[in-house]
Amino acid sequence: MKLIQTEKEALLRPLQAVTGIVERRHTLPILSNVLIEKKNENLTFMATDLEIQITTITNNNETTKNELAVTVAAKKLQDILRALPEKALVTLDLEENRLQVKAGKSRFNLQTLPVEDFPKLPESTEQQARITLKQKELKNLLFLVQYAMAQQDIRYYLNGLLLLLEDNHLKAVATDGHRLGFAWVELESNQERKEVILPRKAVLELAKQLNDSDDPVIVEILQNQIKFTFSNIVIVSKIVDGKFPDYNRVIPRGYQKHFEVNRGLLLQTLQRAAILSNEKFRGARIILTTGNLRIVCNNSEQEEAQEELEIKYEGGALDIGFNITYLLDVLNNLTCETVQCSFGDASSSALITVPGNDNFKYVVMPMRI
Amino acid sequence: MNPPDRRIAHLDMDAFYASVELLRYPELKGLPVVIGGGDDQQSVQDLDGVRQFARLRDYVGRGVVTTSTYEARALGVFSAMGMMKAAKLAPDAVLLPADFNAYRHYSRLFKEAVAVIAPEIEDSGIDEIYIDLTQHPEETLSLACRIKQSVRDATGLSCSIGLSPNKLLSKICSDLEKPDGLTILGADDIPSRIWPLPVRKVNGIGPRATERLASIGINTIEQLSKADPATLQETFGLNYARWLQSASHGVDNRPVVTHLEPRSISRETTFERDLHPRHDRPTLSKIFTDLCDRLSQDLKGRGYLGRTIGIKLRFEDFHTVTRDITITEPTDDATMIRRAGEECLRRVNLNRRIRLLGVRAGSLSATGQSVVGPIMQQQELHLTLE
């Protein structure tokens, strides 16, 4: 029975959008599969790892009004489609328990697994919040903080990103215990206070799939789930059951030592110095004196890099150490012209902000020299 | 005799690995939990968000128990027990895989917390330390309580402390009131508190010595303290017999060693394939030079000079030989090390393929300056829940 006949690209693109989360080796074989469902003129692809579920919906312009569904190894189907010539006309045929992929003189017979076994996330109906914003706004918000998320930390609630609805703001916070990123975007209307922790994998997937357009993304917070609907994609993710630390207490206030500096210039300077920083510990000394910023890096071979920048600074001398990766991360992910750096003493956190714009803050703890 | 004025603490984390796992899965508190086995015991989250844990009854394999919670110990499951055997005793116990990265993280946290209060620390494992409190001005009981509290604040975990005039007694004491115990012992308390214990409780009397002591009718520390020295010496030899008796009287003069000086520094490598001493000479020569370079860097980095240079060769049949040479001037120079190493190599009969080559510098003396700056240490954000 014919499932669909179309150009390779029309299948490959929606398929690739869902395969990013498919685990190659999983104890449940069906999790390596993609669920392809045809309902009238709509063709949907769905993949899941039991934590996240991604669905793409495409209109296949076909006239045949039948309903069909199949699950088949996602990566294999993707590899086959990718290897076919451009614009090739592809037919997917469902015969008994096999899916046949045909294009020109190529034939591929793939085994399938029962559609009923595919573990769709239970649809949560209890909607606790719903907001709409531009895709580029959400994408930008995620990029401002996602690099600060923890990775496989035993404090499991740090392996994700806090999304917080408060007044007319959507706030995002991520921290790995050494540094913390905080950003917010304005919403059209006031919201009831609501917070959820989005798992790391969902954050990375979402940031990858959102585009830079003004097109809308609908965010729905459900019971134990969060749902993002945008373009022709639906991402449903479980939320991390846990309490996120109080980010407000970590953000320092009233620092007296600060300077402003061109972001690109500081980034390039740090990138050069980082070449000779210790590969494991990544330490860099930041030495501030009136009008001058000096950066010193040493590695285990006793090689040394020194960089100097003239800056407008009168806050008094300071000699403080940082993991240079944490500084490069924030500078790489900002897009603004100028950044402001503020300091307390050599054992207090540093605060990086954008002058004239209070919707972003980055706090980073020093290294003891 | 003991110098009377020492105050040595032994701090032992309570069921350390298991307690770290309980921080991660608080829902397992109060249940028998066993750590051991491989990753396939990883818990999985159900569709409805409920975490499913592996049970000991389902375990098949030859692994042993790494550690267990006090609830599991009550059922008779202890470290190093075969898991299949443990499953018979506690089939319903939750089985978790060991996560050493997490344990190391918490190990660092508790040691740092103690170091803030009392810096004279001897590291004696991932979950235990000795602390020399002799010079500390604070009164013993309140100091010990403060250390326990700071460990709890830093990690959320409990520990047991034994405090006495030496390491031997403190190690015994920390075990007396586990978990969350605090035992302070003076020399006068030895007959009442230490002597009734079985000899096995003394760190240094292992299962075999225990067996042999039992065979001459000695089971408790008191019996050991009153044993006939001649009989002991006959059974164990002079040195161990002497040590046994001084230990039974609670005598131990070992200092708390806060910094370990290395005896030697070495570099070695096993080749991807066995190399022939003649046909693969250029390759071997290059590897030898690299090893000497790296050894030289290690010496310079840590601030040592070596006066004995040695080599190690392992042949294809796993036969291993070492040769070393003492040079006139201590060195950290790669060329000097290479030259001394060549001298050693000449004394080896190279008639088989080689699988491993190593270079070592011994008889170390400090240059007085370690050229690696002090390693910078990352500080933590003070994250708190509201």
Structural notes for this entry:
- The complex is a heterodimer of chains A (369) and B (386).
- In chain A, the strands form 3 sheets. In chain A, strands 1-6-7-8-5-2-3-4-14-13-12-9 form a 12-stranded antiparallel sheet. Chain A has a 6-stranded antiparallel sheet with strand order 10-11-22-21-20-15. Chain A has a 4-stranded antiparallel sheet with strand order 18-17-16-19.
- The model of chain A has no long low-confidence stretch (mean pLDDT 92).
- Chain A has helices at residues 8-19, 74-83, 135-145, 200-209, 247-250, 263-274, 324-333, and strands spanning 2-7, 33-39, 42-48, 52-59, 67-73, 89-95, 98-103, 106-113, 127-134, 160-175, 179-199, 216-222, 225-230, 233-238, 257-262, 283-289, 292-298, 304-310, 318-323, 338-343, 350-354, 357-364, 367-368.
- By secondary structure, chain A is an alpha+beta fold.
- Helices cover 19% and strands 47% of the residues of chain A.
- With 386 residues, chain B is α+β, with helices and mostly antiparallel strands.
- Chain B is 35% helix and 23% strand.
- Chain B has helices spanning 16-24, 70-74, 83-89, 100-117, 140-155, 167-174, 190-194, 207-215, 221-225, 229-236, 238-248, 281-302, 334-346, and strands at 8-13, 33-36, 44-45, 51-52, 54-55, 65-68, 94-96, 121-123, 128-132, 159-164, 182-184, 265-275, 304-315, 320-331, 354-362, 365-366, 377-378.
- In chain B, helix 4 runs antiparallel to helix 5 (140-155).
- Chain B is globular and about 65 Å long.
- Chain B starts with 7 loop residues before the first strand and ends in an 8-residue tail after the last strand.
- Classes of the chains: A alpha+beta (369), B alpha+beta (386).
- Strand 23 (367-368) of chain A pairs antiparallel with strand 17 of chain B, so a sheet runs across the interface.
